[in-house]
Design brief:
Layout (H helix, E strand, L loop, with lengths): L1 E5 L4 H12 L3 E6 L7 H10 L5 E3 L5 H11 L3 E4 L6 H6 L1 H21 L4 E7 L22 H19 L4 E7 L1 E3 L18 H9 L6 E4 L11 E2 L1 E3 H17 L3 E6 L5 E2 H12 L5 E4 L14 H6 L8 H14 L12
Parallel strand pairs: 1-2, 1-4, 2-3, 4-5, 5-6, 6-11, 7-10, 8-13
Antiparallel strand pairs: 9-12
Helix pairs in contact: 1-2, 1-8, 3-5, 5-6, 7-11, 9-11
Bound molecules: nicotinamide-adenine-dinucleotide and uridine-5'-diphosphate-4-deoxy-4-fluoro-alpha-D-galactose.
Uridine-5'-diphosphate-4-deoxy-4-fluoro-alpha-D-galactose binds next to helix 7 and strand 8.
């Protein structure tokens, strides 16, 4: 397939570009680099001995999107471009709706107008909000608790509406749980700007000595050990779920909503233990108050994706922390460091 990857320079997008090229697909990227740089794509090109056409532009700019889509003659789109911080979305709700919802509408509507057949969308488990029962199936009621989650749910609805109007247009809403880890080569990984808000990149920087200690946000949740439980999935397994979604849409035009996780709940304390055991590095921790907006537990029912595709998660928690640590060790300054491998 000839695929346009919006947001392809980002964390999940760059790993997905790599997997798509390894599977023989042709890949181009549209990204405004607001949270990334050219470097991950340069590395993907080196790792695959290929060239990736990169268009710098904003997915909300209808003229840019139309010109990229028309010239590229793509048959499929994977739409990663978006803003992803739950906490930032409370400060900038309009920006989150603009980029995540209007950006998705702009890309998808133009795709329909140009006869592009399929689009895979980066949705999020945050569309579920608080749920009483675990694991969470796709037909659970949606109840996002942040502007970020609301913008993802609104974008899903925009896509479903377009698909209702045009049955030859296929969509896949992939609801990611907690993507973590890095490519096993240590050449691709997550490079958050500023102080990382998420558990795994912060933990890696504590282990590297950048920060003194990891704050565990609450140990009095009704969970296995009192700390928050999430469904962590290796970013390479997640990348492969996009390949599986495209292939399912290619076989039969339709609308898909899939949870993408491992279906396994893991606590913060279990993550810390796994990291210490796998790397041999002690991680200083301190229990702090619960983080505002956090939920106790969230993990996926993955029955649907495993029944409707051949996709399976292959990488366990030890692989996630081992690959995270390799990435952190080889790239102490992320993609901007001088000692980065080429
Ligand atoms: P990321 O920030 O690393 O990648 C997003 C990419 O989109 C970046 O390269 C950024 O420059 C680009 N981008 C942002 N706004 C743009 C715009 N207006 N026009 C063009 N490009 C733009 O994030 P990621 O972790 O790779 O996430 C990818 C997608 O997956 C996002 O839509 C995110 O909401 C979603 N998602 C992420 C997670 C997670 O925990 N990482 C979980 C669930 C869903
Ligand atoms: N946590 C800590 N200390 C930290 C950071 C996090 O104890 O320094 C805890 C949290 O309280 C939570 C768990 O680690 O229990 C995971 O927190 P993350 O911030 O890593 O992830 P979230 O589940 O809060 O949210 C993530 C992404 C969202 C995405 C969501 C579901 O940030 O964008 O997963 O996919 F939508």
């Amino acid at each position: 397939m000839n695929i346009l990857v919006t947001g392809g320079a980002g964390y999940i997008g760059s790993h997905t570009c790599l997997r798509l090229i390894e599977k023989g697909h042709q890949v181009s990227v549209l990204d405004n680099l607001c949270n990334s740089s050219h470097e991950p794509l340069r590395r993907v090109e080196l790792m695959t001995n290929s060239q990736i056409p990169v268009f710098i532009g904003d997915v909300r700019d209808a003229d840019t999107v139309a010109s990229v889509l028309r010239d590229g003659q793509f048959d499929s789109i994977i739409h990663f471009a978006g803003l992803k911080s739950v906490s930032e979305s409370f400060d900038k709700p309009t920006e989150y709706h603009d980029v995540n919802c209007i950006g998705t509408l702009t890309v998808a509507r133009t795709a329909v107008q140009l006869g592009i057949k399929r689009l895979v969308f980066s949705s999020s488990a945050t569309v579920y909000g608080n749920q009483d029962t675990m694991p969470i199936p796709e037909n659970a009621p949606t109840a996002p608790t942040s502007p970020y989650g609301e913008s993802k749910l609104a974008a899903e609805r925009v896509l479903c509406g377009l698909q209702d109007e045009c049955s030859s247009f296929s969509i896949a809403n992939l609801r990611y749980f907690n993507p973590v880890g890095a490519h096993e080569s240590g050449r691709l990984g997550e490079d958050p700007r500023g102080v990382p808000a998420n558990l795994m990149p912060f933990l890696a920087r504590v282990a590297a000595g950048v920060y003194r200690e990891l704050l565990i946000y609450g140990n009095d949740y009704p969970t296995v050990d009192g700390t928050g439980v999430r469904d962590y999935i290796h970013v390479v397994d997640l990348a492969d779920a996009h390949v599986a979604a495209l292939s399912a849409l290619q076989k039969r035009p339709r609308r898909i909503t899939w949870n993408v996780g491992r279906g396994v709940g893991i606590s913060v304390a279990q993550i810390v233990s796994a990291f210490e055991r796998t790397t041999g590095i002690n991680v200083p921790c301190r229990v702090a108050h619960r983080r505002e907006g956090d939920i106790a537990e969230s993990y996926a029912d993955v029955t649907r994706i495993t029944e409707e595709s051949e996709w399976r998660p292959h990488k366990d928690l030890d692989s996630m922390v081992r690959d995270l640590w390799r990435w952190q060790s080889l790239n102490p300054h992320g993609y901007s460091g001088a000692s980065t491998p080429t």
